[in-house]
Amino acid sequence: MEIIYLKEDMQLHMTDSIVAAIGFFDGLHVGHMALVEEVKRVADTKHYHKALITFDHYPLYVLGKLKEEKCLTSIDDRYEILKKRGFDYLFVIEFTPKVAALSPQEFIQKYLIECGIKHVVCGFDFRFGAKNQGDAKTLQESFGFNVSVIDEVIYKGEKISSTRIRQHLENGQMKDLNELLGRQYCVHGQVIHGRHIGHEIGFPTANIDYGSYFLPCGGVYAVKVIINQNTYMGMCNIGYNPTFQPLDKASLEVHILDFNHDIYGKEIYVEFYDLIRKEKPFHSKEELIQQLYKDREYVREYFSQIAKEIN
């Protein structure tokens, strides 16, 4: 699979015949995967190459309508998910004010026709072009595209959306969250040095530079940690460490069970399974340590129960 970054001044002329889903696709949740499955269906029928077209930044952030950009999936995450499904291309549009000002017809010419797109898959509410003037009907009426329009996907009576997923993250509702995603919520980043408090109290942690990921609410979670393709149980703390000198920015740190290796500088993946408890200050270091023992035992029992259910 190939990633192609489409700079605003770049000229690209693909010769492959391609069916592509288009959208921002943050989270690549179950609703988005309906578009992915339609791409696969069309590709198998027409013998086209499979692609997804996304943007390098959230459009509302670039246009100044959001103060900060927090993502559910990075471009690398989207690449890995699509690669497992046999996609051929991930097109990443450099989204700038200049791109936002393109008319729907200009957008179609530059990012669909010149990329070899023959069949477009989009959601029922997809909009594009200056002032969101373009929609699925625009695609159908322009340049003879074949267009598949995918209806909303419903879970527990509501539309699956990235906004809904963020709400579950803010509330620590991991079961519903992971149902909406169709997989575990995952954050990855490089292990960096922290304050080493965990080492001092017998629970060493890997402090992770989580970049622009949208974090679950502050608390302790049962997680799985993937390092060099090996998977370990862990308990993850997200928050400001209120028992000690509080941090200015939320940290994400993981105590990895049955693990004692130097992984500073390594890229690791943290998959979230269950919220054990919300973040709270403790009256003493000793009280915190006793709670951490309980948390660790909870993690072992939680994953032991999952293993029994699978078997």
Throw out a few tags for this protein.
single chain; 311 residues; alpha/beta; Elongation Factor Tu (Ef-tu), domain 3; 2 domains; 10 helices; nucleotidyltransferase; Riboflavin_kinase; EC 2.7.7.2
Question: Mind explaining what this structure looks like?
Answer:
It comes from Massilimicrobiota timonensis. This is Riboflavin biosynthesis protein. Pathway: Cofactor biosynthesis; FAD biosynthesis; FAD from FMN: step 1/1; Cofactor biosynthesis; FMN biosynthesis; FMN from riboflavin (ATP route): step 1/1. The strands form three sheets. This protein has a six-stranded parallel sheet with strand order 1-4-3-2-5-6, with helices on both faces. A six-stranded antiparallel beta barrel has the order 9-10-13-12-11-14. The protein has two domains: 2-158, HUPs (Rossmann fold, 3-Layer(aba) Sandwich), CATH 3.40.50.620; 184-310, Elongation Factor Tu (Ef-tu), domain 3. Helix 6 links the parallel strand 5 and strand 6 (146-150). Helix 7 (162-171) packs antiparallel against helix 8 (174-181). It has ten helices and 14 strands. By secondary structure, it is an alpha/beta fold.
Topology of this protein?
Elements: E1 2-6, E2 18-22, H1 30-46, E3 49-55, H2 59-62, H3 75-83, E4 89-93, H4 97-100, H5 104-113, E5 117-123, H6 136-141, E6 146-150, E7 154-155, E8 158-159, H7 162-171, H8 174-181, E9 185-192, H9 197-200, E10 206-209, E11 219-227, E12 230-239, E13 251-256, E14 267-278, H10 285-310
Helix pairs in contact: 7-8
